[in-house]
């Protein structure tokens, strides 16, 4: 039996993602497709555009059989940790194939790159440190150090491309965790990950789609870049004011920074080198999140690095908790967000072999697992912004929501968003 | 030279307050009238209806010569501490007379009461403890214990009346701090402190005035109960959505309780006997502040006691900070909020004798005094709600605002709210 895994954010699910899903099925011949999806806060330190439940719905409609959550402690991290958590979950679920999208599009250069970096490990580390010392950001220093190894005649990947970086770490994690997973890649088409402008084609990056929504204040421009079901559900969320961005959370962050001392904020994950002092100072005079970030960023600290720190401050993700959660480099449980009949049959089939609990519903006041306690805080914070946006509607409550169940034959949700 | 002091909240300033000001001038023959006024958070654990700057403006228009701030550490407290802080400030400013409003209306019964409680101290304490053990709230237990002393033939005060309680503690503080201040009282007319319904007269309690504003969504009903200038400024604040209540701060409190552990909240002032656990639990399912408080209150904990705890949680006022600030039972500085020429002349006259600094403008990043650090946090939190209510207007910034200066002859503000 072939089971393919994909690692996704679907923020929101667009035509490029559909292409990736189709290619993954074709290339792997998978009977079951499992997606590990980030929850409420994403890799670049941003809140998700729409709730994880709605994104799960879109994933099921796009043909994913099982959607599980990548816990907060992994989802808001640099590529290395993000990958190790995601891959561990695919491993737990008995996935046989992993297929990722990349700028590169072929798997051999990824293999070569891992071999080369292994081989020149010492030289690479030395150069990396040198560039960091010179004040370059972490990803930039990596890319520069790597460029200098490119004297070999092997075909290597371009490590300045964000999806190549992720793919590199997926492959590396599979090797490190010694998982029996075959890794392949699909070339991303039509748009770069970081592209902020939409072109006229049917493929656009999620970044440019989000930007178009917030800049134009409507969804017209994104119509051709997303599947019809994405458009329909996003439109409905948009009309009910249930679409989120950092600005919706900024008052809470500002509040927190108004009442806490720099000393107490230094316990937050990624608060290093006195960044917390700088943040408190700049926050005082910044009325919007964008102004704040613009003043905050430097050559040394990328926007993404700083946004992640802000997310950790918002969620109160402490060093101690995060490091405890990350200790094993693997997820200690799997939160099931949604499935169809095919997915359910597969889960029934493997659940006794899964080395960690598969959680279908949360229990209140039971969050001793630091990984889960972080997920709960993230969910509560996300819900709060939802409440402020929606004073009169009761919003979906994390504790009450069972996994979504999609009847793929009759195109009908047997268990829907509450 | 006669200098009379009054201790006020002016939330908002109404006709009863005007009466108190006039009677204070008449009875004391004062040349200068000094008001110690609570800042952004008040004795019953509530945010002020309007900013302290606007309330200062109203005080100056009502004939007060000098308005100074009662620091947060004293303003959000039970009567005993509230009184000791207020009285210490009047002492620092060389006040010769203190005149308070009370249900009682004569000073002798206050004197008698202090003597009696002193005399029967042990018996009183014993009875107090008994009633507390039986589960009565602190004020109720006090009133019950006191009732049993009333066997003497002296005329005593009714200690179940809120303004009598405050007055009792003012007089007691003056004695304890051995201040050369003559204490007198004016009978409150027309409305009880706790009255929630407005009658048809020109006197109504501040409580009923606030209730009328929020219930009716307009200021029509309060017109006859407040001076014309109060009406005019409140109307203008109301039209600009700059009128506040707990609901405006509830999302921030809810946010904080979503990300903190009960253990870390147990460091908050007045978080005792596991109240923090109860608060976190009840908060999760309460969508409005009122629902939340309704579920929270018990026989043992009065609404006021719990509201104060919520305020301390909101402002992050820790036990350590508050106790450090309260150590001396006296204010360590005086924040000047406003004055007229008469007041300014008096301040120039006494400033060299004042034993603590008189602060006219705050310096950023200079809040080593725990009393001031608490005031700064309170101001920042209050401003945040103001920002959410007013996304497009720059709100008055605590750091930028110099004391208001009122030209009482020309009815003109020389230095106004920025």
From TrEMBL, chains A, B:
The keyword ATP-binding applies. Keywords: ATP-binding, Cytoplasm, Ligase, Nucleotide-binding, RNA-binding, tRNA processing, tRNA-binding. SUPFAM superfamilies: Nucleotidylyl transferase. It is found in: Cytoplasm. ATP binds at residues 7-20, 101, 163, 188-189. Pfam families: HIGH_NTase1 (PF05636). It is an enzyme of class 6 (ligase). Its EC number is 6.3.4.-. It catalyses: cytidine(34) in elongator tRNA(Met) + acetate + ATP = N(4)-acetylcytidine(34) in elongator tRNA(Met) + AMP + diphosphate. Catalyzes the formation of N(4)-acetylcytidine (ac(4)C) at the wobble position of elongator tRNA(Met), using acetate and ATP as substrates. First activates an acetate ion to form acetyladenylate (Ac-AMP) and then transfers the acetyl group to tRNA to form ac(4)C34. Belongs to the TmcAL family. This is tRNA(Met) cytidine acetate ligase. It comes from Scopulibacillus cellulosilyticus.
